[in-house]
Specification:
385 residues, mainly beta, Immunoglobulin-like, 2 domains, 6-stranded mixed sheet, 6-stranded antiparallel sheet, 5 helices, 25 strands, 13% helix, 37% strand, elongated
């Protein structure tokens, strides 16, 4: 006779064994890491694996999807067969598709049994081509077909993809420039607008700060906009709001002395500097940026040889061997014309604050803004293509 306590113990063990067998029988297709955290331009190897195969598997067909805006396969040989099937016989493996969606298939050839247990089905090498936000970008397998030796479908209990977070790889430069209207002497500019400066960039309403950055012992003169082009007359690829200091250096919105841009494909760019009421300037050549901010190259727009179109056409000499952006473009359209005086200066004359006709940036629109700057520069046009 089996005692009640012994029977209950045996029953509990049986239940546990049945539960363990149920868990161990789950067939899962998964990627080797649930999340990858990489930088732009890095290459990752993703292994697609199987475990818990209790029935012989002779073939599979798996759809593999990724966001082609952020990732690309490295080359035509990016997909590699894993050992799960070919360890049990000669196989046929292929991957076909287009960017973002591939179909990967493999089957055992000849009269042999299939594979069981766990292993790697295939691997794929992916290159990061664009950064993501904190949510990353998903790798998914929307459709999976497994076949047994009699070509019957084998159900998959669990499919687990992955997520890739791509951090931007940054490139850096430094910029120096002067504004004709704000220029004083010996490489310095007035900073009278400090109490009027808005916390939203006049170039991009999405560039908002809570407080002006601490740039001591220097002072902020005004907002500027920095733009990059691949070619001298090509489209603007990226723009960044920044601050111009009284010593001529440009800092980012956090006050860093170097400007950082996301590195995509190139390191060399034409650099454009714009100000809201001065004519913009562009570099004469494409400058190579540095991936190390400590080695960031200096683009000095105060020097004649740096200016596209030549210093005589692109800028105004304000001191010995120092050139500056030309004042008088109240509406920021790239030309100093009658409407800058008739429409903007005339309506703003006598006003205090942050105004487009305040060409000397002293916080007040006065006769001197028109007489000294607009009148002398009327007819000048930006040489930026």
């Amino acid at each position: 006779m089996i005692r009640r306590s012994t029977f209950l113990s045996m029953l509990l063990i049986a239940i546990c064994l049945v539960g363990w067998q149920s868990l161990s029988a789950a067939l899962e297709i998964y990627m080797d890491q649930s999340q990858y955290h990489i930088r732009n331009h890095d290459v990752i190897r993703v292994d697609v694996k199987i475990k818990g195969a209790a029935t012989e598997i002779r073939g599979y067909q798996i759809e593999f999807d990724y966001d082609s805006e952020h990732l690309e396969i490295v080359d035509g040989s990016a997909f590699e067969e894993g050992g799960f099937l070919y360890e049990n016989g000669r196989t046929q493996f292929y991957a076909i598709g287009k960017p973002g969606h591939y179909q990967v298939a493999c089957s055992i050839l000849g009269l042999t049994w299939g594979s069981m247990g766990s292993g790697t089905l295939f691997s794929v090498h992916l290159k990061a081509i664009k950064s993501t936000d904190a949510n990353g970008t998903d790798l998914i397998m929307p459709n999976i077909i497994l076949r047994d030796p009699l070509n019957n479908a084998i159900p998959v209990d669990e499919i687990n993809g992955s997520n890739v977070i791509i951090d931007a790889l940054l490139m850096h430069c430094k910029i120096k420039a002067y504004l004709q209207g704000a220029y004083l002497t010996n490489g310095s500019m007035r900073h009278s607008l400090i109490s009027f400066l808005p916390l939203t960039s006049p170039y991009d309403e999405n560039d908002i700060i809570d407080i002006l950055p601490d740039v001591s012992p220097n002072h902020i003169v005004d907002w500027v906009s920095v733009q990059l082009r691949e070619t001298y007359n090509g489209p603007i690829l990226v723009s960044q709001s920044a601050f111009l200091l009284d010593n001529g250096m440009v800092v980012d919105m956090d006050g860093n002395s170097y400007l950082s841009f996301e590195h995509t494909d190139l390191l060399s760019y034409y650099v454009i500097l714009r100000h809201r009421n001065h004519l913009g300037v562009m570099s004469a050549v494409a400058h190579e940026f540095s991936l190390d901010y400590e080695d960031a190259p200096l683009i000095d727009f105060s020097q004649a040889e740096t200016l596209y179109g030549g210093a005589v056409n692109a800028a105004m000499q304000v001191d010995s061997n120092i050139f500056a952006l030309i004042a008088g473009d109240a509406n920021g359209d790239g030309r100093i014309a009658n409407n800058d005086q008739a429409v903007f200066w005339r309506s703003q004359n006598g006003s205090f604050g942050y105004h487009s006709a305040d060409f000397d940036l002293n916080g007040a629109v006065q006769n001197s803004d028109m007489v000294i700057y607009w009148r002398n520069n009327n007819g000048r046009v930006s040489v930026i293509p």
